[in-house]
Design a protein that fits this description.
Strand content: 35-45%
Number of helices: 2
Distance between the termini: 64 Å
Low-confidence stretches: 1-47, 49-57
Helix content: 10-25%
Length: 174
């Protein structure tokens, strides 16, 4: 399947979803519901034509917009336990571009990257919303130290992204 056809199918599915949301619901199994817009999309797909958006620009797979995600880390506590300094925090992820994302991997490194722990995750951030992770922590045997918090994800358009923060961990002021 060519890039044009893949794009057309995505637009077609989005167009059908919009049509169904606006009240086209009465279909029996095996029947197909169409509107003039979806019939035009189907005709363009069959003829191999490139679908034009209202702006007149064609969409290709290389032009998919990317999500923009930020991460804010707020310290909430400190504890020395099991020979390690544990810095507890709240991590808030915000999606700013209107494209949903899924976080798929996270990594914490301390001591300037000498000690790292990472894992696979699956956390959803819907378009334009926040994900708040409370009571997460970074533990290190020595302070002060440099630490990094990194997450990787994929947006709803299939684009990969990374968000990271560098921190200096030190004992709280007494």
């Amino acid at each position: 399947m060519t890039g044009k056809r893949q794009t057309l199918r995505r637009v077609l599915v989005a167009g059908l979803g919009l049509t169904l949301m606006t009240g086209l619901t009465a279909c029996n199994e095996g029947e197909t519901a169409t509107t003039p817009e979806t019939e035009m999309m189907l005709a363009a797909e069959e003829s191999g034509e490139e679908l034009q958006l209202a702006s007149g620009d064609a969409v290709t797979d290389d032009e998919r917009p990317s999500a923009f995600v930020t991460m804010d880390i707020e310290p909430v506590g400190y504890l020395f336990t099991e020979g390690r300094h544990r810095f507890t925090q709240t991590r808030t992820f915000t999606e700013h571009s209107g494209i949903g994302v899924t976080l798929v991997k996270g990594r914490i490194c301390v001591r300037g990257g000498e000690e790292c722990v990472e894992g696979q995750i699956s956390r959803r951030i819907d378009a334009g919303t926040e994900l708040v992770l409370q009571n997460h922590y970074i533990a290190t045997p020595v302070v002060p130290t440099q630490a990094s918090v990194q997450y990787w994800g994929v947006d709803d358009n299939g684009n990969s992204f990374e968000v990271s923060e560098e921190l200096t961990l030190a004992l709280p002021a007494q």
